Each structure stands twice: as structure tokens, then as C-alpha cells.
User: Fold these one by one.
Assistant:
Number 1:
Amino acid sequence: MNKWFKSGKPYIWLTAGAVSVSLIAVLGLLALIAWRGLSFFWPAAIHEVEVQANDGSTRVIIGEVYDREEVPISRLEESGVTLEGFEGDMLERKLFKVGNREFVPLDFMWVMQPQIIRDETPQDLAVLERSKDGNFYGYVVDVLENGESVANSENLRKVLFERIERAVEFNEKASDLQQGPIGAINYELNQLRLEARALDLEGQLTEAEQQRLAAEEQALNEQYKELEKELFAYREAASRDSVVMRDMRGMDVTIPMYRVLDATFPNDMGLLSKVGHFFVQIGKFVSEDPREANTEGGVFPAIFGTVFMVLLMSVIVTPFGVIAAVYLHEYAGKNAITRLIRIAVINLAGVPSIVYGVFGLGFFVYMVGGTLDQIFYPEALPSPTFGTPGVMWSAITLAILTLPVVIVSTEEGLSRIPSTLREGSLALGATKAETLWRIILPMASPAIMTGLILAVARAAGEVAPLMLVGVVKSAPMLPVDGNFPYFHLDRKFMHLGFHIYDVGFQSPNVEAARPLVYATSFLLVTVIVGLNLTAIGVRNHLREKYRSLEH
């Protein structure tokens, strides 16, 4: 046994076991997040439940079973709930999502299992996904066009789907018109206003310039009026139809079709239909904008903001980190000052991220951004352009936060390159700069990419500093659009990490937000893994490309 321990094999097995347990724990956590998040998109059965109250009265509830749990009878009695004739210590209760927010005080309600006297899943029950007030559950009674019925019992579903598709198409055209040509005209009108103010501040707002600006403004206003007519025509066409639904109160409710995004009959779906609906819902989640205080809809602006900010941060941190590492390793003297700088760089990696956020807000936003506004954008004052949190300041703040990682990783890569390569290159007549550019940096590129991978992994998940320097709950516009200069680095942006925080802790509807927290968390992990796999692929390519330099 002594000999076996001295051989080191027990430590190898212990290390392998620890790595295996860690890997299983990580994979188990990811599997749990994926299950809780992705199951939200699976079409759940819609129940029609008859519930009996303590006073003997009954009512009907229509909705999907959102959650269920076992609760102690004693806890229910302490909260004032009385259940006559029930024996036992534990009681099952179900959480129903009933939607129809405009007609019920809460779109979630708990129901005790003994109170349920009838539980059915009729095939005709429908779920309407709406742009406002969440889902609507009930029976489809009729489809109306300008108040007149256009469907019967035989073609009701067909007409419903056709009219929903038509309304969605007109809504999309109206949205594209608003975000495209109308948005471009509004942007140009604002630029004209800023140009006039700039000329006025410089004392160059002559009568000729005023006439030119007025003519351009008039031309833009005429274009706007034409586009506005087209926009109103789309909206009028979308509001022509409506659907009549019978809710759980037994009342017929008329819902304008322009507010309906989709209709499904989950109880009448087969397995293939459910799988198709599952992937369609996931596609909507990653491609649409959020709705209802981020508790519904998609997260595309947050995905775009996260990826754009991380890429911008990578472009900033990589050259500065590499230059700093090259100076420290190749040019700086081996003295106390250099050692002190290295210690400071290493210690910077342990500074809390919120401190970087405070520094970014005070230095970059207020000092640098405010100075830029006074020098380059005085016509926009007192409204700040760069003197307010934005995506550029967020990227620079996270670049400083991750700079120590890139410096340390690059310097480690430089230290692994044999000095004989440097000496051989110099002996053959190359200058130190040529040796560095053609030999050292290519060989150290895998280490540089390793540092970038670590920087991306940390930056993509940071939230605390971003709350101070650019991230917001809801951004009306993306940092990139079709208006010059196309990249608007002064704009605020959405971020997946902050979206998780906002939905999980600031949402007015906690029950509706819970599965979205898991779904967005899984999506954030997927985005980080995707960015890292891309960087790893580039690193492996560079390693193979410059492997010949080692020989």
C-alpha cells in the first residue's frame, strides 16, 4: 500500500474523480436550467376546471397547470383556509395560469385538489397570444369583419388562422415602415435641427442657410406625410377583423385581431404539431422584442446588445493588453518598478466589478463624455450625446476590467518562447521590431487568444458595472441601424445578464417571469459558449498555422 501511495496513482485517481464530479455538477446544472427554461415553450394542455368554494358555490377556471406542490394542512389552516372532510397531513394544490388579465385580478391562481369537482381538457379550447395583456384562454365563438360574421362552425379555425396571418402581416408592414423610412426621416429631421443650432452657435446661420434648411425640412415633412398615410392604411387594414372568445365567466369577449399574434389549440395537437410549435416558439423567443415589462415576447435586443458589447470590448482590450504584455516582457527592465507593475496588474483582477462601474461612470461618462459633448456636440446640449451611459463606455469599462487577464495570459505565452529564437533572428540581421512582429507575436497568438477567451467569458456575464455605464431595462433602438454613421456607440443597450436580473427581481408578475429567467439564463450560457468556441477555433487555427516557427 505504501508503495502504491508513493507511486502517485491515488492522487491521479483523486484528481480524476474531482474533475469528474465537477463536470457532472456543471452538466447537471446546465441540464436543470435547460429543462426549466425550454419546457416553457412546450404547448401545455388547457384545462377546464370546475371548482367548489367553501360556501358551496362553484365556478369554472380555464387555463394551464403552471405548477403544483404539496403543502402541509397546518400551514393552510394558519393562513385561514378551511377544508372540511379532508384527512391527512399534506395536500396537493395546483397553480393555474388563466390569463385574461383585463377581466381577472390575477392571471395566476392556486386551487386545492379537493376543491376540484371536474377537470377536463376539451379540444376546442384555444390560446390567443396577444401583443398586450398576455394570453387569452377560452372558446372561439366567431370571427368578425367590420362587425359582421365571416365564419361558421365548419370553417371557423381556417378563417381564424387566415385573419390572424393577415393582421400580423399588416402589423409587420406598419412596424417596418416605422422603424425604416419613418425612423430615417425622423433621424434626418433631428440632424437638421442640430445643424441649424450648430450654425447659430458659430454665427453662420445666414438667410441662405435658413432657406436651405427650411427647404430640406419641408421635403422631409412631405415624405413623412406620405408615409404616414401608408402607415394609417396598414393599421386600419389590421384593425378590420376581430375574434369573439367565450371566457371562463361564460361571457363573449370581442378581441381586435391586430392585437392577436397567434392562436393555438393545444388539446387538439399531435406530437409532431407540438414539436413544431415548440421550435417556432423558441425561434420567436430569440428573434422578437420583449413585451409586457419583459415578461413576454423575445429577447433579441438583449442578445444583440450582449454580443455587440462583447465584440466591441474584445476589439478594445486585445491591442492594449498585448502591447502592455509585450512592453513588460520584451522591453521593460527587470527591476523593482517592473515587478511592482506586474503585482498591480495581477491585483487589478481581484477588484470588485462594481468598482469598475463607478470608475467608468465618473471618469468615462461624466469626464470624458462630458468633454466630448462640449467640444464636438455643443449644439445638442444640454441633452448629452456621449456624456451619458452608452454601449461604448460599457465596452471600455469591461475592457479595463478584463485587461489584467489578457496581459497575464499574453505574458505567459511570451515567456514560453525560447530565447534562442530571438537570438537567432537577431543574428540573421532582423531588427528587434521585425523579430517581434514576424516571430514572437505569431508564436504567442494562441496565448493571446486564450486571454481573449477568458476575457470574453467574464465580460459576457458581468452585470453590476453595466448597470452604471449603459445597460437599460428596455432600449427603443439598437446600437446599429441604417442611419449614418450606422454604429451609434452613444446609445444605451439591453443585456442578457441584466435582463435576467430585471425579469427575476423587478418583474411585477413573478410567476410569469420565473420560466423566462431559466430560458434567458440558458440562452446567456449558450451565447458565451458560442463566443468561446469561436475564439477557441481561431486559436487552434493560429496554433497550427505558426507551428512551423517552433522548429
Note: The chain has three domains: 46-121, 140-267, 303-549.
Number 2:
Amino acid sequence: MKRYKRTGYFVGTALATSLLLAACTDDSDVDEGAEETEGEEEEEADDGEEASGEPQEGGDFMMSLPGEPVTMDPHGSNDNPSAQARTLMYETLVTQNPETLEVETEGLAESFDQPDDDTWVFELHEGVQFHNGEELTADDVVATFERVLEEDRASEAAFLFEMIEDIEAVDDYTVEFTTEYPFAALDAHLAHNAAGIMSEAAIEEEEEGDELNLETEAVGTGPFEFEDWTQGDSLTFTKNEDYWGDNAYLDSVTFEIVGEDLTRVSMLENNETHFAEDIQPTLMDQVDALDNASALTEPSLSMTYMGFNTQEEPFDDPQVRQAIAMAIDNEMLVDGVYEGYGEAANGPINDLVFGYNEDVEDADATNYDPDQAQELLADAGYEEDELEITLWTNNESDVREQTTELVQDQLGEIGVDVSIENVEWGAYLDQTAEGEHEMFILGWGTVTADADYTMYALLHSDSVGAPGNRAFYENDEVDDLIMDARQETDDDAREELYAEILDITVEEAPYIYTVFDELRFGLSDSVENFVFHPNRTFDLSETYITEDAEEGGY
């Protein structure tokens, strides 16, 4: 049996160490001679350039994904499938290192400076061209952020940038941001895919009602250009031959939308795809056994959670929410549904994220305790078998559907009758944003690796609905603490404020944080330099396919 292998980027934290251990098979039944030979072969195979020579030019990189983007517009829906597509085409001023998660000037900004707490100045690379042939200038940066902050647009990404008070093009290649208050995480927010710089000319062309539609097309500066979107089926991106940096090796990238997990695995086995995303834990061994591909895992910034509509009975009562939370065994979820690929969550952020507080793991408020859960329900006025609730899931993830079934069983043990309703993905997002649910399951990634992204989106009353707070949770004290943390420049003080927020919100339980998931996927052995970022986007700028893959006829 093959050993699971890493793809080249690894976050050196305690969580990442545990993920590496979980991703390895047991070698205890291999004799010493065979083990030594395998180790030598693996070492050679892990070094892409030694195994296959120089990086190979050309090839069509086929990717099999479970979810379809909602929009190509960076200021549209804040969903992950859309982000995966947009990051191939749009570039940000700064980037987030996939190994350290630190902000770096590897983007469109050559450098940046913060002359005072409220001012950020970015110097742009010169000679950068958009896909429409226009040159990048500071005016494009200004137009991009003015667009996302337009009140009438009501962008789901506006919360990331609403502290920006003014944006000025100092000269053609210098842009200055002035914030309403000191905001230490601005650089992390500017690395978010919603900060992808758009062409001012393209923005104006769309506004004038010409043929361009930025929801279904894209005009960025990235290494790949938008080619085609056959909705419900596939998206195609081609190499940007006029890219300002080093050109990509690949000729094109194709996202194939394939909802069935087994189908994605079959496509990988039959050389119909190079990459299969979101492999069910139960299928990882099957992928591992393939002769032409490997089962891989990477650390993730993603968290799965269940939310309540806190504005509606019975979930307007914190005791009821606590009781439901205490009846769900996250460790059983990790072992039974995720098969060890992940960690039980007792809060909204893991230890890859600034603001993480390990003390939350020891909080008693929502730890598994079915007896206490029954007592809380009785105190809230519900006798056994009196409480009936509807739990929504969606067709985007078999793991989530399995999670809801296990939750149904566990809540049944304390006398709560749970009906599961499977809602189509687009309707799911719309209806949970409108508060039409009782209880739902969803995922959230702290993609900036800073707690503000999650705290403000999931817990602040200004984010109720589509921006993230689908629990419709409102707490004035929490709102104030989140804003205090936003305006605090001292990291230690910020961490203390986030600890206070976590103490309050874990106790009040507007959400049940269940599992910090891993990125589980299958990758053809013919692919080198593939980077799957912990924020679940792809960096294909240096990815290439070996000659063997070309001969294999992908």
C-alpha cells in the first residue's frame, strides 16, 4: 500500500503534526529491506525535478470538483468554489504564504508601508497588464475598492473593507488607503480573494451595459485567463501568455463539476482527471490503492458547524441551544464520520489562526454531556419527546449529510425529534441568509488566518444574513468587543479581547462548532508542484504535468 504524501507546503503547528500522522499508513508489516527500498523511491518521487527532469511545458490540467462557483465577480458571493476560480484569474496586492500563513508582497504590490496606524501605502509593480490589454495603475485599485464598498451593491465581501475611509491614487503606481480606525488585520484582508484587483475599464464597460458580464466572465491580471463556463458542467481557463511574472507551465486548467464522490474517484483512476477534490474519508483508502494517483491531506482553515436561528423559538432560548450542543459528541463525529481526518472543535477557529485560545477547548458550556442536556431542556420547559426541530443540510457534501444523520441519532437519545431536509445549494444559501431555517449545517473557513474574519462575519449583528451570521445572533456586548478588537493595534490585547468573545459566545451557543476538517483529495502521480492552500484555493502558477501524463492522454 502506498504511503500518503504531502504536496509540498506544510504548516508547522501542533495541528499540522497530528494531520501528518493521521495521513500515514501503517508500515509495521513491511520487512526492513523492502521498507528501505520504498523509502528511497518515495524520496526520489517527492522531488519533482529529480524524478522527471525540468518542469514540463504544456498540458491541460483537469480538476474534478464537487461544487460549482456562484459567480466570477470578486464582489459577488463569498463561497469557496467561486474563490477557487477567481484566484486563478484575479490577483491581490499582497498574498498569504501557504506554509506560514504570513502576509507577503508576492502580489501586485512591490512593497507597502504603514506610516501611521490609519494609513497604508502600496507601491505597485509596473508593466502589469490585465487580460483585456489595459495596464494596471493605481486607478484600477481605487476603482476596485470603491466598487466593493458601494452601498447599493451590498457585496457579501464589504465587511472585509468597510473600515477603509478613503482610497487615493497618489500617482500611477502608488495607492494610499486611509482607515476610519486602526485596523491591524487590513493586510490579511487585502490578501482575500475579494480584494482581487479588477480593471477599471472592465468595470466601466459592464456598467455601460456592453456585452461584458463580470458575473460570468473575468478580467484580472493572473496567470490564467477566463475562457468558458458551461454552467452545471465545467469551467475552462487558459494560460495568460502576457503575464507580468513567470508564465505558467500549463496550457489550460479545466474545472469539471462532478457531484458524486465515487465518480470523481473513478475519473482519477481512469486518467480522466488529474485532481479529485473533497474525497470522502471512507474513500481515502480506495484512492490510496490506485496505481496512478495518491490520497493526500493538507492542513485546513476550514470548520464545519451547525447554526440555530436564534430569533425563532425554541432557539431564542440559550438553554435550548446549550442543550442541543451538549447532546452532540464531536469526538464521535471525527471518528465515525471523518474517520480521524480532522479534529473536534469547541470554538470557531483552530490553532492556525491568530486569536486562537486553547482554553476554549476546556469550556464546560457545550462539552458532550447528554444528561446535563436533558436537564437544561427540562429547565427550559421541554419534557422528553416534546421538542421537534428541522435540520437543514445540502447536496454539496456527503460528509455533511452523514453528520446530520449522526446528529439526528444523538439528539434522539435525549428525546429530541429531528427531521432532516436536504435543500439545493443555491436555495440553501439564499434561504439561510433570509432566516427561513430552524437549524442548519454549513462550513466556514477563516481564510485570512486572523480571528477578525470569523468573529465579525459569524457573530457581529451587522453581519446578519448573507455576510455570514446566519444564526441571526445579536449581542451588544459581543458587538462592542469585536469592534474593540478591530481597533486594537497590540496583538496581545487583541488576543485577550478574542478570548472574551469566545467565552461569551461558546456559553450562548448560537452555533455548534463540530469539526476542524482537513483538505482530503486525490492527485495524479504525474502532477508536480501542485499547491492546495489551507484556505482551500489553488496555486497552479508552477504546477506542471510530466511527460508520462502527456502520453497517458488526459
Note: The mean pLDDT is 88.
Number 3:
Amino acid sequence: MLRRLLPTLLALGCGLLALTWGLVSLQRIFTQEREDARAQLRSRRDALEEYATQALRHTLGKQLEGNLAALHAAMGDPLAPGDGFLLNFRGHQFLPRLTRSSRGSRATARRHYQELVKAFAEGAPAEPWRERLVRLRAVEAALAKGPSSRANALAEELLRHHAENPLPPVQELPFVLLLLERLQRGEATPPLVRALLREGLPEDFGGIERSAGLQRDLLRERWRFTQPDFDFLLAHVVRVSTALGEPSDDFQARAREAGAGMLVIPESLSGPTLIGERWYVEQQGEVVRGIAVDLEALLRDLARDMRGRGHFGPDGLVRLRASEAIQSLESLRLEVSVPQWTAAENAIEQRYGLKTLLVATCGALAVAIVVMAVVAQHGRYRYVELKSDFVATVSHELRTPLASIRLLAETMERKLSKVPGMRDYPERIIQAADGLHFLVENILSFNRIDKGRWQLKPARVKLDELIGMLRSDLVGNTSVPVRLTADVGDVELEVDPSLVRLLLINLARNACAYNRNNPVELSIRAYPHPGHGCVVLFGDNGIGIPEAEWENVFRDFYRLGSQGPEVHGSGLGLALCRKIMALHGGRISIDNSSPQGTTFSLLFPEPRHEHPEQPS
């Protein structure tokens, strides 16, 4: 068999190798096409991302440069807007301002103010303001007589004493507040007294170092006061500012600033840096300057500008590729997201997938064709061999009974009248003819069932009647005595009687052919199988079937070798039995087998129709 298939296998193998080489080469071309297309898209994206990154760096630098003047102003003046600015010098944060009050609910400044008010009204001394209160009463008494040079001189002496003898802010600010409240006279307020509110005292008073005005001093020293104290002083300062006609909107705005708390600045910055996507900072020596930025708004503006320049469509977006707490602008990279590019990438992958699928399909088809060709060749040669074996077997089987019939007929013609022993020749001729008829019947029935040409004619029949037919078929058709026992009760089957009769006689003849015992013993038992109809067990006392051959014996034209004398047959008996059972919706199998005999199990399905009992 292999020798016959070798040329075909070599030809198919060479063809398959050539096709494989072609498909692999084609797949490499498809892969290179995909990589080239993706490289083009990647190159364009990289160029736009580099452009966007450089544009963002330039925009951030310009914003910081444009805000330097306001940043320096906020540094020197607590009343100047400082929100959104950062200034750090030698590790000390000046901006954003720390606008938190001290913890707790005590009101020390308010208590000092109330003590001052009471002491001033009663003319009593109060430490440490005793000298100041004396001078304040003198200035107020002079002002009560009307503006005069004496009143101004007394006010100047009071303020010089105040500047030369500073007190802690928690004591100093309540006194300055009381001073302003007692000496304010609207437009007639002395200029030096009015200066205490916003500008502070002139330089020759030592005010540059000591005070920058009550409003500024309160904001600068806010951290020393609890929130109740701060709110108390704030309300009084606003009231005095209104009475003097001095502006207080900026003062109140700075008082409401929430601030940003203490910002953690790295010890050394490698260059312009983004901190938390909220601050843009630059370091020059020991000074770190920065501004608050709205990065999302900047990216939206950048995307709008790029759309206006025609770099991408209306759906394009620009965003940070990686979000980090501290990110140097040198390492910052923006990501440009364009839906059209995503669609193009998907189209590239889809085309590559289709091409790959095409290559794989071609490969699978090629393998399938090779396998089918090998199987077809193998089946063809197998069919030829089986056909040859079948023809030889059938020819041999037909030749033997025909030769016997011819020989016996000739001998009977010559010697029948002379030898009394010739009387059994007619019986032997009949047996040989019956054997030939049985063989032909098996072949014809097998062919009709195999081709689907048998029209099943089911009928309700008692199993005992079929066994009776089997007894009749065995009489005179076997060369050895047969003892058949049956225990089937009143079991009825809905089957084609002629086919089941053929099945039983095949099993019986096989039992007689593969048997060394005399007589041949056959047993048939039947019992109902719940949910599956009826089980019929057909047993014999033959030589048995090896377990490895239990399925093979039901194959077409398969013959089991015998250890005794040669057994003639076509190899269709058990195959025909299986086809008959399958035609009835049942099955046949070997229940057990040993050198003492074999038992076949026939499972018949339940009857499909109930037939009414015939009247007696």
C-alpha cells in the first residue's frame, strides 16, 4: 500500500513545500506593507507632537515673562494681588501667601483692644500702653479744639514714640486701630494719622522697617492671629477705612484669598518645570519664580490653533502623554489624538488581518487538498483491494457448493442404483444449495440496505414466533446438531420479520461455524429494558471472540481468523446484523465473550404504535 502511495506523496509534498514558500513570502510582503503604512502615520504624529510640545513650552515661558512685574509687586506689597504667583527664595516661600490664621479660638487682640478702649475712656493707666495712652488723650484733646499746629505737633510726637517703641503685633495693632478710631476726623484727619492706615509712617519715623500701614501689617501678620481675632480686626479696619475715605476693596480681597499653602519645591530644578499640572516654575540661582497655569485651557487653545493651521481636523485633541507630580519641560511630551488617524490605523490592521486570513485560508486549503488526496488515494486502493478480496472470496464460496452439487449430481447419476449408501446425496445436495442460497441472500440484503433501498415493513410479532422460524431454518441446514433453548415469555417486537429472521439465522450460522462442541448450544433470553424497549441476549458455546476484535467483527468484509479448520464465509454476516439493527433504531454489541462462548446483546426500541387486540 505504501509503495503505491509513495509517488503521489512525493508529488504532493513537493507541491506543498513550493506553496508554503510562496505563502510565507507573500505574508512577509503584507507585513512590510503594514509596517510602512504605520511608520508613515507615526512619523506625522511625532512631528505634530513635537510641534505642540515646543508651542506649549514657548507659551508657558511667555506667560511667566509677562507676569514678572505683577509677581514682584505682589512680593513687595501685601495689598497687591498675589493669587497665582509663586516666589521662593532660599527655601522660604513668599508667594503664594500663607493666608491661614493660627489655630484656636482665643481672641487675644480683641481682649487687648477692649482693655485699651476701657483704659482710654476711664483715664486709667494700662501697661504696656500707658505712655501712649497719655499722649493719645493729649492729641484728642487738642483736636477737639479744632485742627491746629499744636494738635499736629502732638500727633507727630505720639507717632515718633510709637515708631521708636514697637510692641508685639498682637498688642501693636489693637493700639493703632484705637488710635485711628479716636483721631479720625474725616477730611480733617492729620496726614500722619491717615498714613497709618495704608502707606505707613515716613522714613524719618522709622516706619519703613516698622510699619507699612495697618492694612498691610494685618495681612502680613495674619498668621499670628486666630481666625476670630483676625475677623474682629478686619471688620474694624474696614470701618475705619470707610470713615477716612480710604480704599479697602483690595484689602478685603487679599483677606479673602485662600492661598495655596506651602508648596513643595524640589531642591534643584533642571529647568522650566510643571508642578502638579498647576504651576509653571523657573529657577534662577536661589530664586524660584512661577505662575499658576490652566493647562487644560492652554491645551485647548493649542489644539484650536493647530486646527486653524490645518494640522488636523475638528475632532483633534492635544493632551499630556504622561501625568506626573513634577515634570520637567525638557522631558514633557504632548500627545496628539486624531480620530482619523485611529481610523486609518484600524483600516491598516483590518487590511493586514484580511490578507493574513487569505494566506492562512490558502494554506489550510492546500493542506486539506493534500489530506483529501492522500485519503482518496488510500480509499481507492483500499476499495480495489476489498473488491478484489470480495470477488475472490465470493467466487471461492460459490465455487465450492456448485462443485459439490455437480459432483454429487454426476455420482448420483452413475451409481445411485448400485450403492444404497447414496441415499443421503439428495439431502447433501439440498444443504449445499441452501448454503449457496443463504450466501446470495446475505449479499443481496446487505447491498439493498447499504444503498438505502430496503423498504422497512414493521409489524407487531412475538419473539417466540421468530424463534420458531429460526428452529425451522436450522433443521437440515447445519452439519452438526444444534440445541436451541429460549426464555422470552410473551415479548413482542415491532420489527420487519424477514429482516430479524435473517439476523437470527446469521448469528446461529456463525455460532455453528466457529464451534468445536457437539452439539452446538444456542440460548435466547429476553427481558424489558426500562426506557429502552427490549433487550435480547443471544448466546452460544463457540470458541469466543478476542476482546480486541469486538468492534472489528462488525466491519464490512471483515473475517475473524479461526484457530481450527478453515471457516468459509463472506465477512458480511455480523456487518449485516448491525445494519439490520440500525435500520430498526436499535443496536447490537457483544455483551461478553470467552473460550466457552459468546453472548450478543440486541437492544430493540419500544414499539411506536399500540395495536388493538384482535377479537377472538
Note: The first helix runs from residue 2 to 66.
Number 4:
Amino acid sequence: MAVPAKILQMATIEKPAYQWDTPEPLTQQTSAAPYPLDALPGIIGDAVREVVQIVKCPAAIAANSALSVLATACQGVANIKPNPRLKKPSPLSLIMVTIGDPNERKSAADDFFSEEIGEWCDSKEMELEPELKAYKAELASWNAQKRGLEKAIESAASKGDPISLQKGQEAREKLIWLEQNEPEKVYIPKMTTKDATPEGIAKHLMNKWPSLCNMAAEAGAVFGGHGMAKDKAMRNFSRINELWEAGKVEVTRSGDDDSFTIAGGRFSMGLAIQPDLIREFFETNGRGATGSGFFARWLLSFPETTQGTRIEDVETLLTEAQTPSIEAFRKQLHGILEQQYTNGKGGKFDNLPTLKLSREALGIWVNYLNSVERELVSGGDFEGEGKIAGKNPNNAARLAGLFHLFNGGDVLDAISGETMRAACRLASWHLYEARRFFGEIALPKDDLEAVKLDSWLIAECKASGEAIVSKNRVLQRVTPASLRKADKLNKALDTLERANRIRQTKEGKTAVIEVNPALLEEVK
């Protein structure tokens, strides 16, 4: 029986193309607000501007390098207590974290600001070399005497006769005196590291120098190292939090001789980390980090890249850069490092002076504290975000202390209202950057898996030149491997479908996933 002509005609009609709605973003894709360079007063702001002009990095990266160095130097000079009713002052330590691509030139910016610290430490080591040699000789003699007295006591006890026991008593008295008169250790300043673990940081503060800054341009070793493995992370969060507070840190080992306590140490961080690495870190340790207050202590930035705009020309490169502000920064830094050495040469910072606020500065700080608190209520900018906002006003006070000291203020002078106003403005900028971080990167696990699946599907389609991937291929090949389970994959696919980024359909009997063509413009 022949097929009717009308049916044959209908079979040749093309199926109308599927009408896609505009794909919705999976994250809060907000833009970074311009970095408030004018909030960096005096020498600091001028030096940061020069570095940005030379390095062509984002302003936030250069500023974070400068502030990390300031904290490293000033944390051994003074403390600050913005709330006069509290018993314990805060150190001037900071944790600066920048999220961005490794090609944002953080290392180059760090070099401009940290070079003076490195050269000053090297110079101090040479200056102290005779004292260090004398100390080593005295310590060797002291240890020899101690061993001799211990042997004499042991020998006298084994003999037991009156004369031997008398000699043993004399040896004990000498040993007591010797223990009370151990040679005074010579500490050689070394203030920066790039990949120290929390355990290494603790040992450094105990045995080398009581002030340290971890300045890592690629902080994968910090956030991805064994020290941040899930079973150790909570302990290390707590340790870093204590160091940020200049609290007492106890490191306990199986043997008493290996255990030690850090008191009077100061620790800062100036880190950069890639978005993918911080995502993995948050996925593994996010709940512990937020619950412990680890993130709340950060001054975080997530700047727009300058890559693609860093154009150079031969004449400029052959002309020596004029850096009067950087030189002024180095000169001021040198003087502050000398103050830190005077305070810390005994191996810890005891009885540092506490910076005071003028009445105007206190009023400005209280207003800022209250404004942050009000935004934590329902409907506020930071509703449910106490985990990132709780320590921010304290960071504002620390910034004010750094600005005060570095721009020539004496430890006995009160911090001005102008200085506090600049510090609160900068702290506020970092607080909103932290909100962007939590909105765009630190997602719940299910949402994060949807983001990863979305990236994988787009990459797969761009590689094949097709806008369709079979569901079976996804189950076999998708990364992360956790999505190769049908229930997890289906949940992530449903999220993407609701956002108009994919649709699930069939070609014959084969289940396929179509990706919204708007996400594949390069293929077209």
C-alpha cells in the first residue's frame, strides 16, 4: 500500500528549532568595586600607586602586598585596643588573601615592598654574627658543665657514702644555679616565608624570631598541603586564629621534650590563591573554617584581572623608573624594623605599648562597628554572614594602627579621626569583597557540583564542536568523579535545567544533554 502524499509531505517538514530562554547565572556575578586607593594615606598610598604603574597589577594586589609588609613590621612595635573596656589588646597582625589567577603579578608587587625586610634581615644577621658565635660557644660550655654535674650527682648517689653524698649535694646546688643562668639566646631576625605549614610557623616563632609573615604568591601549599587535610584542618584553623590574636599557642607532642608553648609571638599572612583551589579547599573544609572564625579574620579581595591590558613599549622599558615614594616607603619601613628588633631581641614581644584612639577616632570606630552590626539583621547586607563580618571592625582598628605608625605617628600619640575614617573605609571595601567571595565561590556542595558540571559540559561541547553530549558519556567521563553517580548527576542536571543552561532530551532511544547555544558562542 502506497504512503499517502500528504504524510510524505509532512515528513519532509523540518522540526522547528527549540527556543532557548536566556541562561541564568549559577552564582552572584557581581563586579568588584574599584579599590579605594585614596583610603591608603600618605607614604603607603603613594608607594602603592607607583607599584601599580610599574607592575600593572590590580591595585588590590599591590595594596595587599604593602599592607602585609606593614603588618609584618608593625606587629612587633605596638598593639591596639579600640574598645577600652576590654582587657586584652589586639596585635596589628593581618591576614590578607587575594583570589585570582597566578599570572596577576603578585610576586612582582611583593618584591617591591618586601625587599627592604629581606635586606634588613640579612644586614642584621651579619651584624649579629659575632654575638651568635659567642652564644654558641657559651652554650656548648654550659651544656658540658650541665652534663658533668649530672654525672657527678648520679655517681654520688650510686656510692652512697657520706663524702660522696656531700659532693652530690654540692653538685646539685651548682646545677640549680646553672639552670638559672643559661646563656641568653641570640635571635636572628627572619620575618618572611612563602610555604610554611602551621607547624613550621609555630617552630619559627618559638626558635627563630617572634614575628613572621607568610607571603605566598601561589598559596596552594598553604590551602592544599597536608597541614590542611580534613583531619588536621580544625586544629590548624584554631592555631592560626590564636596567632592572629597573639594568644598563647600550645604545641603538644607525645614526648614532653618535644612539646612547647608560644607566647608573645606575632603572625600575619599575605596570600594569593587561584579560584579553583579555594573552591576545593572550601568544599573540604568550609564548614570548619567558617565555624572556627577562620574566614572572619581575613581581609579578602577578588579583583578584576588586568591581563590583556598590560601593554608595554620599548622606550618606557629602557627608561629607569622613578620611584621616590617606594624609596620613602623603604626608609620608613627600616626605622620600624629597628623598633621591632629592640622589642623582640629577647625572643618574644612582652609589654608592647597599646595605641590609643582620640575621642573622634573612637566615635568613628563605634559608628562603623554599629553599622556592620545593623547589616547582620534580616534584610541587611550581611544577613546570616556573621561568619565573615564578625571580626571586620577589629581589622579596621588594626589598619588604623598600621596607618598611624607608618605615617610617622608615635606609639604615645592618639590615632586621629582622619586615620580611623580611612581605615574603616578600607575595611568596609574588604567586607563587601568577602560577600562576593561567599556568593560566587563558597557555594553549598550541591550548587558547587552544578557549577563544575556546567563547566565540564561547556568544555566538552567546545572541544567536540557539538552542542550535545550523551548522558551515558557524562556518567562515564565527567569530573569530578562524584558526579558519575546517577542521583548526584540528576540533581546537578536539574539545577542547570532550571537555570536554562541545558535541557535533557532524547535522540531516538539515547538520552542526551543539550547545552544552551548562548554558552557556546565560540563554537558558532
Note: Residues 206 and 262 are 6 Å apart (CA to CA).
